[in-house]
Amino acid sequence: MTRALISLCLACALTACGTIHLENTALMSGQNNLERRSIMPAAPDRPVILMAFSGGGTRAAVLAASVLEEMSTTKYTALDGPHVLTQDVKFVSSVSGGSVTAGWLGLLGHPPEEKDFESLQTNFLARDNMKDLASNLVDPEFWYRLAFTRYIRIDALEELFDRQLFHGAKLGEINRPGRPIIVLNATDMAGGETFAFTPQRFDDICTDFDSMPLSAGVASSAAFPILLSPVSLRNYSEACAGNRRAAEWAAIEVSAPSQPFNNLPEYRDARYTNDLRFGSNRFRNIDYLHLLDGGLADNLGINSLRSALIGTHDDTRLLRAINDGKVEKLVVIVVNARSDKPSGLYKSARSPGLISMIGSVTSVPVDANTANAQEVLQNLLRDLSNAARETATAQFHRLAVYGITIDFDQIPADTAEHRALRDNAKDVPTSWTLTDKQVQATEAVGKFLLANNPCYRALVSDLGATTAIQGDAAIRAVCPTRYIVSESGVSQTTN
Amino acid sequence: MEFIFVKFDPADPRDVVVNGDAVGKTDTTLIVPPSFYVIKLSGDGYLPVNWLGDVVGTTTEHPLHIVFSKVPTA
C-alpha cells in the first residue's frame, strides 16, 4: 500500500509543478486577529496544564489520545468544586500525527469523555485511512482534478481530515473562550523555521486566522515531504490593510547589536517575525510560505511550548501569570511517540542500500534534534522550579513544577510483561493506518507511562486526586522538577 | 532564565513593560528570558522614561535592580 502511494505521489509530483493553490486570505481593513482563549486557572489551586504532542502518524495521535483518556479518569476537588484533570489542559502544541488529536480536542468544546474517545477511535484512529488515500488511484475524478484544477496532493489529506473529524471547521471554531489554546506547528520549508498556527503568527503575515480551515492547519503540520505537497500561503504584509498588533519586541530585538549574543534562538525568532512583517533591515524577503511537516524543524512542538512558557510577548501571557503568582501548579506533559522498529541492519554484514540510507538520513537528524529539544525543556523546567524555591519573596515562590515526559524508551526492561509492552510499542509503524493490535499496544503504553510517571504521581498526590489506573508499586522514581516548600525548608518529593 | 527587580513607589504598584509587553509588577522579583530590553512602567509620572540594556548573568540571589522614581505629573 505504501509503495503504491509513493508511486502515486511521485507521478503526481510532476503534474503538480507550477500549480498555484494558496490557502489564506488577507486581513481586511480594520480586521484583526484576536486570541480568545486563556491559560488562567479558574481557581488558584487548580493546575495549569501545557502539553506537546509529537509527530508519528496515527501512532502519535493514539498515544496523545491515550494520555488524555487516562487524565480524564483523574478526578479531584478544588476550591471551585469537583473537576477532571482534562479541564485544566490550557495549551497544546502539536506536530503532524499529534495535530490530529490536538485539532480534535480543540474542536470538541468540552473535556473529552469516554464516548468522545470512542468516536475519535472509530472515525480516525482505528480506521484504514491509507486505503482511503490510496483509493484516489482508481478514481478518475482525482486524476482530472490533479491535472486540470488547482487541486494538489495535500488536498487529499485535508479532505480526509474534514470528512472524518473536522467537517469543514475553521480555526475560528477552536479559537473560542474556555477552550485550550491549540498550536499546530508546521515547517517553513525555505527557511527551516517553525511556523506556528496562532493568531499572533497570522498577524505577522497579515492573514485572517479565524477563516483558515482547521484541516489545512493540521495537514500543514502533517505534510510529509515528497509524499505530500506543501501547504502554500501568501504573505500579505507588504500592503497590509488589517488592524494587526504591533510587534515592538521584534523591532527592538532585531536592532539591538548585543541580542544575538544574549539569546540566539530569541533573536532568530525576532528576525523571522521582522522578515514576515516586512520590517526594516530584513534578512529575507518572504512573499510566499510553503509549509511542510512540523517534525522537520521540531518533532515535539517544543519551540512553541517554550515560547508559551517563557516568552515575554507570547499570547498565552503565562510568564505574566507566573510572575504575578497566579499559577501555583504548572504541569508540562510532553508526549513523544518516537518508535524504533527493530532494524535488520544489525543482523546483516552487507552494506546498506539506498532506501535504508534515505530512511536514516530522514529520521536520525529528527530524532537527535528531538532529544536535544527535550533536554532544553527539562532544563528550563528545572530552572523555573529552582527559581521558585530560591526566591522566597517573589510572587512565584509557591510555584510547583511537574515536568512529565511520555516516551517509549521509559518502559522498564525488568519483567517479561514490561519487555513485551516495550517491544509491541516500538514496533508500531509511522502510518495513517494501524492494526487494532497496534492501536491497543500504543494505548496501553500511554496509560502505563502516565500512571507511572513520578511527576504525575506527585501531581495526583498533591491534588488529592483519584485515578482509574494505579502505578506499578515496583517503579519508584522521584519527580526531578517538583519541590515541597514547607516552614522548615525545602525538600524534593518522594512519591 | 534571568531575574529583574524593578523598584518604584511601593504604594503605587505599576506594570513592568519589557519590549512592549507587561510581564509583572514593580517591587518584586520577575522572571524574564535573557535579552536586550527597553523597560518602561505603565502609566506616567516616572523617570527615567525608560531603561535600556542587556539582562544577562543574573541569579535569584542577585537580580538586576532597576530603579524608577516617581515625579509629579503636570
Textual characterization of the structure:
The complex is a heterodimer of chains A (495) and B (74). Chain A has 495 residues and is α/β, with parallel strands linked by helices. Chain A contains 19 helices and 12 strands. In chain A, the strands form 3 sheets. In chain A, strands 1, 4, 5, 6, 7, 8, 9 and 10 form an 8-stranded mixed β-sheet that branches. In chain A, strands 2-3 form a two-stranded antiparallel sheet. The longest helix of chain A has 37 residues, at 354-390. Chain B is built from no helices and 9 strands. Chain B has strands at residues 2-7, 15-18, 21-25, 29-32, 35-41, 46-47, 51-55, 64-67, 69-70. Chain B has a 4-stranded antiparallel β-sheet, with no helix packed on it. In chain B, strands 4-1-8 form a 3-stranded mixed β-sheet, with no helix packed on it. The mean pLDDT of chain B is 95. Chain A binds chain B through residues 246-249, 252-253, 256, 258-259, 262-263, 266, 310-313, 319-320, 322-324, 380, 383-384, 386-387, 390-391, 393-396, and chain B through 1, 3, 18-25, 28-38, 54-56, 60-61.
